[in-house]
Amino acid sequence: MWINADLGEGGAHDEAMFNVIDWANIACGGHAGDEQSIRQACALALEHDVEVGAHPSYPDRAGFGRQKPEISPAVLLNELKQQMELFENTAAKLGCTPAHFKPHGQLYNDAAVQPAEAEILIKLAHAFPHLKMLALAESPLVAWARSAGIQVIEEAFPDRAYLGNGTLAPRSHPGALLHDPVQVKAQAALMIRGGPLPCLDGSSRVVVAQTLCVHGDSPQAVENAQAVRAALTEHDQDMFNGAD
For site-directed labelling of 197, which of 40, 72, 97, 100 has its Cα 20 to 30 A away? Predict the structure, then answer.
């Protein structure tokens, strides 16, 4: 299982995060980022042997990609393609080869469950067929994209609370963001081992994923990433000891 992080968003901890993670999702102009920040992130990725991917979003810099714009699907698809092209062209200049993409913010949440937004991402994936798509684990988007022939990597969030239907609790909900690295590590361990997660609505749910995301814009980003790495390491050690 891999650790990924959303970076290149102007956060203070990017360089330290590259010491901990396996994959980096790099903002490419929709909610944050520009050619210079992409170049800096790709250089760090090359230095630390971290896989990179584009992190496109609704064109909403003022709201950090958390507001859906009033534009047509065709205009949105073209905007996302431009973000992806900026990222790929900039990365190529450094000899950095992207391997995946992951939508950001409200686009990520909308596309996970809503057919119209999911169709836009599926079309985007077809325009960049060499890239894997990261998507919310067990969401309808996973099945829709796979049925369209797209390679999907299912993702879970140790630093976010869930609702019982498998979606992320809205950031406006109290307790939606997990700040305590001890709590983040405990949730990561449950995800790694397939244990039931306590959800904000009082239910529980097992979340099975291939990669775990740590948000790079959190003040505790590095500590949270280290906590998730520790949970993975302890699980690997337990598996090894059990094999003996």
Answer: 100
